[in-house]
Amino acid sequence: MIEAVRAEVAAREPVDQRERESIARFLAESARLAHPFDRDADPTHVTGSAIVVGPRGVVLVEHKLLHIWLQPGGHVDPDEEPWEAAVREAREETGLDVRVPAPDHAGRGRPRLVHVDVHHAAHGHLHLDLRYLLEADGDPAPPPGESQQVRWFAWDDAIAIADPGLLGALRALRPGAAGSGHPAGLGGGRR
Predict the structure, then answer these.
(1) Count of CB atoms within 10 A of residue 157's CB?
(2) DSSP letter string over 69-123?
(3) N vs C: which end of the chain shows fewer Cβ within 10 Å?
(4) Are the beta carbons of 59 and 52 closer than 8 angstroms?
(5) What is the pLDDT of residues 100-153, one digit of tens each?
């Protein structure tokens, strides 16, 4: 699976310099890892995140410890694909019934990879984060134990408050952005 993921990452057209550097680092780090999806095998590992969009804009979660606004996401469980982790984490962290907006460019019924970000995380970890596009509507209802600070943001408001590692993705996916690849009818809430 890692070779297919690496090929997909290598084929991405980066949205900014940070993503360009993240793609290069993802490819270098993932090539050296014996078990790139196993968070216990190495402090550097692949994670899966979701950029959840809908008629009200984009969903962000305030990290409970870091107090920064991020996309939902987390570690890849054993025998799980990174896009499956993104879907699972989005559902767990937001309580939303997230779904794949449309088949990816290869016609598969899984989310489309829309961003790559490599960043330092807690406990000395380095996350090789793959971000997939999902859609939802309704009100977030995070379960107990998850951050209760989950909400829809209009695109410009999300861009103003989000963690810097997410800005390139939000700017590129914002409806009306050149090459947003946004499904028709999604992403309202723009001001």
Answers:
(1) 18
(2) EE-SEEEPPTT--HHHHHHHHHHHHH----B-SS--TTS-SSPPEEEEEEEE-GG
(3) C
(4) yes
(5) 997 656 666 789 999 999 999 888 999 999 999 999 999 999 999 998 999 999
